């Protein structure tokens, strides 16, 4: 293992001074380390944005790298192939290897992408090198040397990073000091809308929902980060008689923000879009999102939602849920949530298979 500081310093020694990315816990250390120094790391909403901002910085003359989880490769393939490869821009990408080498040891949403990651890069003729957990500074330097050769040939190399290859560091962030615990907010929302079909976003929100409000009408969306509200829209449009509650995260909503406009345009009267805004990607170690400078209610209203509010207390949240159910939507309810404390409850997929989740949700919609 190399430390987070060694990772960043070896790259900086080679002139890589501009980084972007979307967190994976594998990169918690470097992101935390870089975030302590202004201008070193741009937190991106999705992996494609991360690559594109790095491409812009490369055009601007900087040496750049990005960090991502391999589940986000799909978000990045378009700008990788049509921008970075087409214009031969020199960017170094680090991707974690969830679901690799043995998909059975990871969560189900990584099963396809784990073994596919190297093959996918091969299929677009992108060079890649692997940093293993047992590797130290010497091996990492050798990998960077190989990557330099790729860059010199105007290719954009990837380094595949095994779990445990880079050390951790504590993320500095700016949490809300007023707000509700996430699990409490989920309990209040689901109790206020007992008839609703619920879509729970990926990460800790799904785990909290499974612990405090499991029901057959809850779809636990592990993976497909950022798509909970689009799934919710599809459900709401096909079942206009049923209230639909989306439990979203700030990082997840920011990842595919265009869904706000799609929802505003389709205007499903039965959709309540709840955003648990803790200003961080808590599920991957608490790296800051950019929600502190973004107004979700402002965006939702501008996108055509019928109403949008912020709550940070139980009474306000109860009132917002009552109003949202009494008037046609779509409604956005943004809840300021506090950092989670204590051990996280288990994932839904520890007890249910993905097919169980699908089937019981479908049957519940038919009832
Ligand atoms: C495309 C993609 N990129 C990255 C990840 C890794 N990931 C899983 S959960 C998560 C954080 C989600 O943040 P947020 O929506 O704010 O919820 P919180 O974790 O704070 O509850 C990330 C980055 C992922 N699952 N998919």
UniProtKB/TrEMBL annotation:
<dbReference type="InterPro" id="IPR011766">
    <property type="entry name" value="TPP_enzyme_TPP-bd"/>
</dbReference>
<dbReference type="GO" id="GO:0030976">
    <property type="term" value="F:thiamine pyrophosphate binding"/>
</dbReference>
<keyword id="KW-0670">Pyruvate</keyword>
<feature type="domain" description="Thiamine pyrophosphate enzyme TPP-binding">
    <location>
        <begin position="219"/>
        <end position="333"/>
    </location>
</feature>
<keyword id="KW-0786">Thiamine pyrophosphate</keyword>
<dbReference type="GO" id="GO:0032923">
    <property type="term" value="P:organic phosphonate biosynthetic process"/>
</dbReference>
<dbReference type="InterPro" id="IPR051818">
    <property type="entry name" value="TPP_dependent_decarboxylase"/>
</dbReference>
<dbReference type="InterPro" id="IPR017684">
    <property type="entry name" value="Phosphono-pyrv_decarboxylase"/>
</dbReference>
<keyword id="KW-0210">Decarboxylase</keyword>
<dbReference type="GO" id="GO:0000287">
    <property type="term" value="F:magnesium ion binding"/>
</dbReference>
<dbReference type="GO" id="GO:0017000">
    <property type="term" value="P:antibiotic biosynthetic process"/>
</dbReference>
<dbReference type="InterPro" id="IPR000399">
    <property type="entry name" value="TPP-bd_CS"/>
</dbReference>
<keyword id="KW-0456">Lyase</keyword>
<dbReference type="GO" id="GO:0033980">
    <property type="term" value="F:phosphonopyruvate decarboxylase activity"/>
</dbReference>
<protein>
    <recommendedName>
        <fullName>Phosphonopyruvate decarboxylase</fullName>
        <ecNumber>4.1.1.82</ecNumber>
    </recommendedName>
</protein>
<dbReference type="Pfam" id="PF02775">
    <property type="entry name" value="TPP_enzyme_C"/>
</dbReference>
<dbReference type="InterPro" id="IPR029061">
    <property type="entry name" value="THDP-binding"/>
</dbReference>
């Amino acid at each position: 293992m190399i430390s987070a500081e060694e990772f960043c310093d070896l790259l900086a020694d080679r002139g890589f001074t501009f980084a972007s990315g979307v967190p994976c816990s594998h990169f918690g250390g470097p992101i935390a380390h870089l975030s302590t120094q202004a201008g070193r790391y741009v937190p991106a909403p999705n992996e494609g944005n991360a690559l594109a901002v790095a491409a812009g910085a490369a055009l601007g003359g900087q040496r750049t790298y990005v960090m991502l989880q391999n589940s986000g490769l799909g978000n990045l393939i378009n700008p990788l192939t049509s921008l970075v490869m087409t214009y031969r821009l020199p960017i170094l990408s680090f991707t974690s290897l969830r679901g690799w080498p043995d998909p059975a040891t990871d969560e189900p949403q990584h099963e396809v992408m784990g073994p596919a990651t190297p093959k996918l890069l091969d299929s677009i003729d992108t060079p890649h090198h692997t940093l293993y957990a047992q590797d130290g500074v010497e091996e990492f330097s050798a990998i960077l040397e190989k990557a330099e050769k790729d860059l010199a040939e105007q290719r954009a190399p990837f380094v595949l990073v095994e779990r445990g290859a880079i050390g951790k560091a504590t993320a500095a962030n700016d949490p809300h000091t007023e707000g509700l615990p996430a699990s409490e907010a989920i309990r209040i929302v689901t109790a206020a809308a007992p008839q609703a079909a619920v879509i729970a976003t990926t990460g800790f929100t799904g785990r909290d929902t499974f612990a405090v409000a499991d029901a057959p009408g809850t779809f636990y969306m592990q993976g497909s980060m950022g798509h909970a509200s689009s799934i919710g829209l599809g459900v709401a449009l096909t079942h206009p008689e049923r209230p639909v509650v989306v439990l979203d995260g700030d990082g997840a909503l920011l990842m595919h923000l265009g869904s706000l406009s799609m929802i505003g345009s389709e205007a499903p009267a039965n959709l309540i879009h709840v955003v648990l805004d803790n200003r961080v990607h808590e599920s991957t170690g608490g790296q800051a999102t950019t929600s502190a400078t973004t107004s979700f209610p402002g965006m939702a209203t501008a996108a055509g939602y019928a109403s949008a509010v912020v709550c940070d207390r139980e009474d306000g949240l109860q009132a917002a849920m009552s109003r949202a159910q009494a008037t046609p939507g779509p409604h956005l309810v943004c809840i300021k949530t506090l950092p989670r404390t204590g051990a996280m409850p288990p994932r839904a997929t520890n007890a249910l298979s993905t097919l169980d989740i699908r089937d019981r949700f479908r049957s519940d919609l038919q009832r």
